[in-house]
Amino acid sequence: MTADRQHAHALLDRLPADQMNAAVRFLEFLLLEDEEISEEEEAAVARSKEWFKHNEGIPFEQLVADLGFSMDEIREGSKDSAA
Length: 83
What we know:
- The protein is an all-alpha fold.
- The chain is 76% helix and 0% strand.
- It has helices at 3-14, 17-32, 39-54, 60-66, 71-82.
- 0% of the residues are buried.
């Protein structure tokens, strides 16, 4: 194991449990960043960009309310998934 890998493992071992979810998501982001984008994904991004040229976005808070949740429920739900 390289010194950098050992250091990363040591840092993860010291990380408080409530921050582990954020660390895992960041590591996943780093790995996904190198993946090639498929033609299907490129087409989806192009459709999204075109939609936003003609439509206003929906605030996250409004989407949450439309789905019958409160922002407190969303925040508490993300804490539950981090445990």
